[in-house]
Structures are given as structure tokens and as C-alpha cells.
């Protein structure tokens, strides 16, 4: 398995070093960057979610944002978003097809991430990465708001959905 390195940042967004992925997960002092892509169905009213593989080290088997991945060392948010979109869903998009929605922060006992969230309108076709994802499907706003579904969502997805609602995007 190849070793993944992430750039490490201070709270002001200044790059201060580099660390292995394995060091970043489990050490919330190592702030790193992540890109997410929310995939909106072109007909409106639905967004795509991925069910994380049961073999994932964080939040296995939970529903999450359609595309999410760490920004590799030397990479920027947009490049990482396009790479993750290609790797996770088999979708090749241009930079102009992604729209920056907002930035957020994830801080928990496992890791600290600054997240840039993009939007893409697409109905597929999708070819998801079975090593990373068990299932994908479009969800309606009502399904996403249903309290019965919350326990099957990652905490990060719950926070991101709240921001999408707050900004009138859901």
C-alpha cells in the first residue's frame, strides 16, 4: 500500500509541514485539507450520496457526501475534487463544471480538516469505486431530513446537510 502524505496547515491556513495520512488520522493537531463534491441531479430536488465501504477506517458503512477525499501533498482543493470525482464515481469533469459552494471545518477527536465543498450537476452514469463505496443513490430533501435516516449518516454529512439547507441549496 502506498504511503499518502498530506500538507499540514495552521488555523490561519498557512502550510506548516507535511505528515503521513496514518499520522493525521488519530492526531487532531495535524490540520489538513479535504475536498467534497455534492452531486445534484439535473432535474432538481435530489442529491447523490455514497455509502462508505464497510472496510473504511473512519465511519464504515455510513452514508456520506457523494465525493470526499483528502487533498494530497502539493495538491490544491480543486485538483483534489476533480481527482476524487474521477476515482470515486468515474466522472471526468472540467474545473468549470464544479462550483464552489462553501468552506467548512471538521474538528473531532480523530482528525481536523478544512473542507472546500463544490457542486456538480450530473445524472451519471456513475462507476463507483467498490474498494471505497458499497452503494450510491440519489436522495430527496425529505429523505435527507428524515430523523430515521440520521443514524445511518456520517456526522460530517449531517453537518454538511445543515449548511446546504442554511444556504438554501436543499
Automatic annotation (TrEMBL):
Domain of life of the source: Bacteria
Entry annotated with the keyword Hydrolase: yes
UniProt KW keywords: Hydrolase
Any GO molecular function: hydrolase activity
PROSITE patterns referenced in this protein's UniProt entry, alphabetically: NUDIX, NUDIX_BOX
InterPro entries noted in UniProt: NUDIX_hydrolase-like_dom_sf, NUDIX_hydrolase_CS, NUDIX_hydrolase_dom
Coiled coil feature spans: none
PANTHER family cross-referenced by the UniProt entry: ISOPENTENYL-DIPHOSPHATE DELTA-ISOMERASE
Name the record gives this protein: NUDIX domain-containing protein
Taxonomy of the source species: Bacteria, Pseudomonadati, Lentisphaerota, Lentisphaeria, Victivallales
Amino acid at each position: 500500500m502506498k504511503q499518502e502524505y498530506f500538507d499540514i496547515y495552521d488555523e490561519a491556513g498557512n502550510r506548516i509541514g507535511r505528515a503521513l495520512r496514518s499520522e493525521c488520522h488519530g492526531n487532531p493537531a495535524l490540520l489538513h485539507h479535504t475536498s467534497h463534491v455534492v452531486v445534484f441531479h439535473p432535474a432538481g430536488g435530489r442529491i447523490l450520496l455514497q455509502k462508505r465501504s464497510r472496510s473504511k477506517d473512519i465511519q464504515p458503512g455510513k452514508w456520506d457526501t457523494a465525493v470526499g477525499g483528502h487533498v494530497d501533498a502539493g495538491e490544491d482543493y480543486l485538483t483534489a475534487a476533480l481527482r476524487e470525482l474521477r476515482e470515486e464515481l468515474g466522472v471526468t469533469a472540467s474545473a468549470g463544471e464544479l462550483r464552489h459552494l462553501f468552506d467548512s471545518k471538521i474538528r473531532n477527536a480523530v482528525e481536523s480538516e478544512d473542507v472546500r465543498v463544490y457542486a456538480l450537476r450530473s445524472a451519471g452514469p456513475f462507476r463507483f469505486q467498490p474498494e471505497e463505496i458499497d452503494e450510491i443513490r440519489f436522495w430527496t430533501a425529505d429523505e435527507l431530513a428524515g430523523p430515521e435516516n440520521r443514524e445511518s449518516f456520517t456526522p460530517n454529512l449531517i453537518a454538511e446537510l445543515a449548511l446546504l439547507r442554511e444556504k438554501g441549496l436543499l
